[in-house]
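Many introductory courses stop at the sequence. We go one step further.
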Amino acid sequence: MSVSGDQKAESKVEQAKGKVKETTGRAVGNERLEAEGAGEQAKGDAREAKEKIKDVFKD
């Protein structure tokens, strides 16, 4: 897997972990966990967008 592929996979993992945290936090009423999960998802989304932009300019 290339560096770009590694970054894409890492962003997907980060998004998934964030979703789990957010959902768990919401289910148990833990606002901090919910917010932390939403933040991780946003970070993963930003990383994914950055990789997509790199792909556009790579060609």
